[in-house]
Amino acid sequence: MTAALAGLRVFDLTRILAGPTCTQLLGDLGCDVIKIERPGEGDDTRKWGPPFLKDRDGEDTGEAAYYLSSNRNKRSLSLDIAKPEGQALARRLIADCDILVENFKVGGLARYGLSYADLKDDCPGLIYCSITGFGQTGPYAPRAGYDYLAQGLGGIMSLTGPVEGEPYKVGVGIADVMCGMYAASAILAALHHHHRTGRGQHIDLALLDTQVAWLVNEGLNYLTSGSVSKRQGNEHPNIVPYKVMPCSDGYFILAVGNDRQFRSFCDFAGVPTLAGDPRFLTNADRVRNREALYALLPDITAKKTQAEWIEGLAGLHVPCSAVNTLDQVFADPQVRHRGMHLKMPYPGSRSGEVDLIGNPIKFSETPVDYRHAPPTCGQHTEEVLQDFGLGPEEIAALKDSGVI
Question: Which of 5, 28, 238, 283 could in theory staple to 359 by disulfide, Cβ–Cβ 3.0 to 4.6 A?
Fold first, then answer.
């Protein structure tokens, strides 16, 4: 079977996380992703450790887990675009690509003659996606942008963490990851437009914009009511009870989404009269009286074990779960069944393999294709250049001049 985007080629000028998340997804879907890296340096995240992958002797390979997380299904080409010869080679390769993704600062690639304006006339069908902290326009456009800044400016930190104390960022670079996902979606839409018209276009993605976009219900809560939301710890602003609750041997998540589920919970908990309390009859009632309900629930939930709650409530179709640590996540039978932990051949590692997180997309006709483990810097330089039609003498000259 052929992957959905097989036959498309991506010129990948991204590094860190947002751009590589986008291009890894495109690679998983079948694109031939050519990752452009500075000779001898490579993606910054290669050094963002520990932890680092271990070699056969148990020593660090120099490849950080951070880098490995978002660079599968790519071929690495070392290319110095700061040199005129490198710029000329880049333009030559881009002319034979369908998509270009970059996350340089605004105007950064214009110095090398590789901006959208520089390329659009010679490559009218090129889909050119720029990912920056704040976008190509606006007062913040010249600023460097990072996930942490986007989380802060975009409001998610004002909603995350305990009710009292300092704001918290999300535990992973979620603004970067979501920006990469939006970028991939935008590229797919641009591909459809190209299929109909033959024309490419410039896509302008910003970390801050995408962070604001995925405020979703909390953003609309503010826009609808004019009331600024406050941090609620593990509670939900619009659903009650929806919280981490104590049990006799730890904690479990109780996520009641409707009134039927609340009645089923109360029956199983042995407190059926609670569901008939006028303060708690409907979800809207429970939201208005959350403090009163949450004052009662801990004594009730502490009477059963975590397993009793999860098994009993799951059978009644009341959403609930454990709070897994990462070792428990990857040992979970559902996670294992869905193939979310995978191993790929990696000859330089201690085991001859590298552990990766699987792609969550399940196609019936064009399954995700795991072809390449995250590459070492410049691993595929000669192979890629040969694919683009360069001969041995030309490749040797480029090496001698330090361009590759």
Answer: 28
What kind and span of H or E run contains 281?
none
Sequence ranges of the domains in the chain: 9-214+336-400, 242-325
**CA quadruple 129, 133, 137, 143: dihedral sign:** negative
Contact predicate 102/14, CB 8 Å: yes
Strand partners of residue 356: 342
Residues with Cβ within 8 Å of 126's Cβ and at least 6 positions away in sequence, in order, are 94, 97, 98, 99, 100, 119, 120, 200
- pTM metric for this prediction: 0.93
- Rg (alpha carbons) of the chain, rounded to whole number: 25
226: three-class secondary structure by DSSP: coil
For residue 266, the surrounding DSSP H or E stretch is helix 259-269
Q: How many whole angstroms separate alpha carbon 81 and alpha carbon 39?
A: 10
- Max alpha carbon distance in the chain (Å)? 84
Cβ-in-10-Å burial (0-12, 13-18, 19+) of 289 comes to middle
CA distance 231 to 155: 11
Measured between alpha carbons, how far is 38 from 31 in angstroms, rounded to an integer? Answer: 22
Q: Provide the total of helices (H) and of strands (E) in the chain, helices listed first.
A: 17, 13
Task: Give me the architecture of the 9-214+336-400 domain, per CATH.
Answer: 3-Layer(aba) Sandwich (3.40)
Task: Classify strands 60-64 and 52-54 as parallel, antiparallel or unpaired.
Answer: antiparallel
CATH class of 242-325: alpha beta
Residues 79, 404: contact at Cβ < 8 Å? yes
Distance from C-alpha of 220 to C-alpha of 238, rounded to nearest angstrom: 12
Local confidence pLDDT in tens for the 404 residues of the chain: 689 999 999 999 999 999 999 999 999 999 999 999 999 999 999 999 999 999 999 999 989 999 999 999 999 999 999 999 999 999 999 999 999 999 999 999 999 999 999 999 999 999 999 999 999 999 999 999 999 999 999 999 999 999 999 999 999 999 999 999 999 999 999 999 999 999 999 999 999 999 999 999 999 999 999 999 989 999 999 999 999 999 999 999 999 999 999 999 999 999 999 999 999 999 999 999 999 999 999 999 999 999 999 999 999 999 999 999 999 999 999 999 999 999 999 988 999 999 999 999 999 999 999 999 999 999 999 999 999 999 999 999 999 999 99
Which of 147, 176, 209, 369 is the catalytic position?
176
176 is catalytic: yes
